[in-house]
Amino acid sequence: MEKRFYSVDAEGKILGRLATQIANILRGKNKVDFAPNVDSGDYVIVINAAKIKVSGKKKENKIYRHYSGYPGGLKEKNFATLLAKKPEQIILSAVRGMLPKNKLARQIIKKLKVYPGKEHKHSAQKPEELKEIKSL
């Protein structure tokens, strides 16, 4: 199967709408030969992850949690602090939540490459620009 590379500019895009489009391309749902048990999706490169938008008061109220497994090991960060420190983690967690929870999803998420700025190291793959993702 031929794997293609797509490039998405996240500047000014809404997080949830962008994540659903990316998840569909990663799984291969946009292809004719889609099968839920086969990894037939393409690679997606997301640039400008630091300029993603959310609606409402999610910037202050949305909380990302990580539990280490030890007592007292629950770490919480809100959207604004995570956007300042690790903006690629926001898009990764949004797309991961839209994939099935199995071994195939752990293989699929490796095809998502997220960068906080404009520069990425995949120019040799000649990624195609995705235009169908719209913002409000």
List the helices and strands and how they pair.
Layout: E1 5-9, H1 15-27, E2 43-47, H2 58-61, E3 63-67, E4 74-78, H3 79-85, H4 87-97, H5 103-108, E5 112-114, E6 128-129
Parallel strand pairs: 1-2, 1-6, 2-5
Antiparallel strand pairs: 3-4
Whole-Å distance between the termini? 35 Å
Mean pLDDT over all positions? 94
Sketch the major β-sheet.
4 strands, parallel
Based on helices, strands and strand pairing, what is the structural class?
Answer: alpha/beta
The CATH homologous superfamily name of the domain at 5-54 and 87-129 equals Ribosomal protein L13
Overall spatial form:
globular
Low-pLDDT residue intervals, each spanning 5 or more residues = none
CATH fold naming of the domain at 5-54 and 87-129: Ribosomal Protein L13p, Chain: A
Number of separate helices? 5
Query: How helix-rich are the residues, as a percent range?
Result: 25-40%
Second rung of CATH, namely the architecture of the domain at 5-54 and 87-129: Alpha-Beta Complex
Proportion of strand residues:
15-25%
Strand order of the largest sheet: 5-2-1-6
Total strand segments: 6
Helix and strand sequence: EHEHEEHHHEE
Q: Which CATH class of the domain at 5-54 and 87-129?
A: Alpha Beta
From the alpha carbons, calculate the radius of gyration and give it in angstroms: 16 Å
Keywords:
single chain; 136 residues; alpha/beta; Ribosomal Protein L13p, Chain: A; four-stranded parallel sheet; 5 helices; 6 strands
Explain what the structure shows.
There is one protein chain. The protein is α/β, with parallel strands linked by helices. It has a domain at 5-54 and 87-129: Ribosomal Protein L13p, Chain: A. The protein is built from five helices and six strands; from the N terminus they run βαβαββαααββ. It has helices at residues 15-27, 58-61, 79-85, 87-97, 103-108, and strands at 5-9, 43-47, 63-67, 74-78, 112-114, 128-129. Helix 1 (15-27) crosses helix 4 (87-97) and helix 3 (79-85) packs across helix 4 (87-97). The longest helix is centred in the first third of the chain and has 13 residues, at 15-27. The radius of gyration is 16 Å and the shape is globular.
